[in-house]
Design goal:
By secondary structure, this protein is of the alpha/beta class. About 50% of the residues lie in helices and about 10% in strands.
Length: about 180
């Protein structure tokens, strides 16, 4: 294992994402995981009980941590997912759920599902799937690495996914404007 076993990136959104932090704690509570080193970049979310938590990590430091960590878990922020891949890791993604007050709309869920279907991320929307996926990544990190050749090959798929997300955001913004009028 590397110096950092698990990096969790929650972004800088002001909405809390306690659900993902609780899943991280549940994972670290499992027998055999007590010695794992985990760091969570929290934004405004409350810190985990069993991992180190910091509010904001400077950009250059976050890039270094992405490269160093064995597993990188992230919210469904499109830019964050793509950056994790660029740093050589296939992200384990838990999109924020607006029904739980974690975000303002479904764009993270829709983009994450699209990326999951393309095989570019490991998508987990349920606690059990998250616990299993994180264990699998830590057991066989090389199977979850992203090579430069893969990044190059995937650029067209990523561009299509980004375009789809733009259309989703436009549709949601238009619907919101109509609701207000």
């Amino acid at each position: 294992m590397s110096e950092l076993d698990v990096l969790v990136i929650l972004g800088t959104d002001h909405h809390h994402f306690d659900r993902l932090v609780s899943w991280l704690d549940a994972f670290l509570e499992q027998p055999g995981n007590e010695s794992l080193r985990a760091l969570a970049q929290l934004g405004d979310t409350a810190p985990p009980r069993l991992a180190e938590g910091v509010g904001i990590v400077p950009y250059d430091e976050l890039q270094r941590l992405m490269r160093q960590a064995t597993a990188v878990v992230t919210h469904g922020g499109p830019a964050t997912m793509l950056e994790v891949r660029r740093q050589g890791r296939k992200p384990l993604v838990v999109p924020r759920d607006p029904a739980l007050g974690e975000h303002v709309d479904q764009h993270q869920q829709e983009f994450s599902r699209r990326m999951g279907k393309l095989g570019l991320v490991t998508l987990c929307e349920e606690r059990g799937a998250f616990l299993d996926a994180l264990a699998a990544i830590l057991k066989d990190p090389e199977a979850h690495a992203v090579t430069e050749q893969e990044n190059e090959r995937d650029r067209a798929q990523v561009a299509a996914a980004v375009a789809t997300t733009g259309a989703i955001i436009d549709r949601l913004a238009l619907a919101r404007r109509h609701e207000k009028s």
